[in-house]
Specification:
heterodimer; A: 108 residues; mainly beta; six-stranded mixed beta sheet; three-stranded antiparallel beta sheet; 9 strands; B: 124 residues; seven-stranded mixed beta sheet; four-stranded antiparallel beta sheet; 0% helix; 47% strand
Chain lengths: 108, 124
Amino acid sequence: SYVLTQPPSVSVAPGKTARITCGGNNIGSKSVHWYQQKPGQAPVLVIYYDSDRPSGIPERFSGSNSGNTATLTISRVEAGDEADYYCQVWDSSSDHPVFGTGTKVTVL
Amino acid sequence: EVQLLESGGGLVQPGGSLRLSCAASGFTFSSYAMSWVRQAPGKGLEWVSAISGSGGSTYYADSVKGRFTISRDNSKNTLYLQMNSLRAEDTAVYYCAKVPWGEFLVMANYFDYWGQGTLVTVSS
């Protein structure tokens, strides 16, 4: 099945920009969705269709997707952004969704 | 406001059974496909199963096919997951999640709302 690879961890200082990558074979041809999961909480959708934001998600969250890498960018990082982030795509070969390995974002 | 509230988790012995429920509110339940996604302790997210809004179509991950059964009661706004022949590797928090459309087999599908999850522990 389709494999999505994320870095295990990303560290960023408050006010700086965090970039979380999601690698997959020709992922640019798929739509990528991103979820934020804070400790002990359920996942929350933060980006869908590569770069769309659900209502209530700050504009600081943005996404892009091209070639073999999709990227979630968090601008002006705040302490409250500390969480695990997962990418997700639809695997058309198996007809089910696939999640990335997850990235823990630490705010220094 | 969309709300999803799971229940039914607990400790069960290997080979045992458990039924999870997910009570939904804040949207027209029958109009949307629903899904179960699980997360083993300290691990990532794994899709488990899904069902269309009408309940006429069901889908399963290979890891649970033949052991788990998803269903829904649209008159009660409730989603279910019947889990049989449970194994230690089924230990996880099980989340119910809403899909933005009535059908699940939609290219680029995703999950727009999630419940808080219920913990299933399979151990002797």
